[in-house]
């Protein structure tokens, strides 16, 4: 039985003798001879021999590996198909190479087309992704709107059920009410505009009276200090009670009270009648003065009160103050001071 090396050598000889054309081994042999002729050994340089020897070993080692690889491929194909490998005829490699060039050119063209289609597909994918996001947002919005529409329909059905047609307001009625409300708004706006100057006037009056109140507060502090001195003197029990100063304090206190209450003057007409004059801001009052007459019985209880000079009827939208209810309340409680304060509020509206 021949050895593997002998079989391999025999196969190589059969392959080289079975074709009339130059084989790969012959081509390698010719290239080797050409390199040998062109190498530095041909020049007779002995120092280049080791280097060239190593290069030739490497070259033959690679050549042997290629040959063994090709032979292994041939044996493998033969073991699978059972057919002898195809013979390469002269000129066939050149034709195949030309066909390969043409096919490579076509392949390159097809690759370029595929690359263009790939780029276009990527751009279309991006565009489709944007369209998908927009469509998803629109679908979400449509879902939300449909849900809201259903809720509104349910709410409308509930309202219709809660308010039958016979109790609903028609369009004409709604328009009439809207027109009435518009007119009311216009009237109120005109009243607000007209009340602007009066508000400024009242603010100036309030500021002036605030100044008077501050001045009276300072006078009150002075008089209270004097009263404290009188009280201390009275507690000591000495002869230092200043009756005159007490009289002055009492008089100033009365004046302060009158100023606070807006009382211009007070006079006793009879034991059962007291007349007070007020400063008033109501229009229609002569010289800005109103007169309140208090009537008392024998036990000094309030029995009636009459207000005059506070305006005749309605002047510039302001009606004459009606103190009948306040008078009845004060008579029941015997509260003359409360009636005096109530009349002041009615004579000086804000």
From TrEMBL:
Cross-referenced InterPro entries: Sos7 (IPR037475), Sos7_CC (IPR048781)
Record-annotated Kinetochore protein Sos7 coiled-coil domain positions: 59-130
Coiled-coil region list: 93-191
Pfam families recorded: Sos7 (PF20882)
GO cellular component, one term: kinetochore
PANTHER family associated with the record: KINETOCHORE PROTEIN SOS7 (PTHR37329)
Name of the molecule in the record: Kinetochore protein Sos7 coiled-coil domain-containing protein
């Amino acid at each position: 039985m021949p050895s593997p090396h002998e079989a391999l050598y025999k196969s190589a000889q059969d392959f080289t003798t079975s074709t009339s054309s130059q084989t790969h081994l012959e081509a390698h042999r010719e290239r080797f001879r050409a390199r040998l002729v062109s190498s530095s050994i041909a020049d007779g340089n002995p120092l280049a021999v080791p280097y060239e020897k190593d290069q030739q070993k490497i070259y033959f080692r690679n050549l042997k590996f290629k040959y063994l690889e090709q032979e292994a491929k041939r044996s493998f194909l033969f073991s699978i198909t059972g057919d002898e490998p195809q013979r390469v005829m002269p000129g066939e490699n050149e034709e195949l190479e030309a066909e390969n060039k043409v096919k490579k050119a076509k392949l390159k063209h097809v690759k370029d087309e595929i690359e263009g289609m790939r780029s276009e597909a990527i751009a279309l994918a991006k565009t489709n992704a944007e369209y998908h996001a927009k469509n998803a947002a629109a679908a979400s919005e449509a879902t939300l709107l449909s849900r809201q529409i259903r809720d509104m329909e349910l709410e409308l059905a509930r309202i219709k059920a809660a308010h039958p047609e016979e109790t609903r307001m028609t369009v004409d009625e709604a328009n009439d009410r809207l027109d009435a409300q518009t007119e009311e708004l216009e009237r109120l706006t005109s009243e607000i505009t007209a009340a602007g100057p009066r508000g400024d006037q009242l603010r100036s009056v309030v500021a002036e009276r605030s100044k008077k109140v501050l001045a009276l507060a300072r006078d009150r502090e002075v008089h209270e200090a004097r009263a404290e001195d009188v009280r201390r003197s009275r507690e000591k029990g000495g002869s230092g009670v200043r009756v005159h100063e007490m009289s002055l304090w009492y008089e100033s206190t009365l004046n302060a009270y009158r100023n606070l209450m807006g009382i211009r003057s007070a006079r006793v007409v009879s034991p059962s009648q007291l007349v007070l004059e007020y400063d008033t801001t109501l229009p229609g009052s002569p010289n800005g003065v109103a007169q309140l007459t208090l009537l008392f019985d024998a036990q000094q209880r309030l029995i009636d009160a009459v207000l005059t000079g506070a305006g005749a009827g309605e002047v510039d939208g302001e009606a004459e103050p009606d103190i009948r209810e306040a008078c009845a309340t004060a008579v029941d409680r015997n509260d003359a001071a409360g009636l005096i304060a109530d009349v002041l509020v009615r004579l000086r509206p804000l």
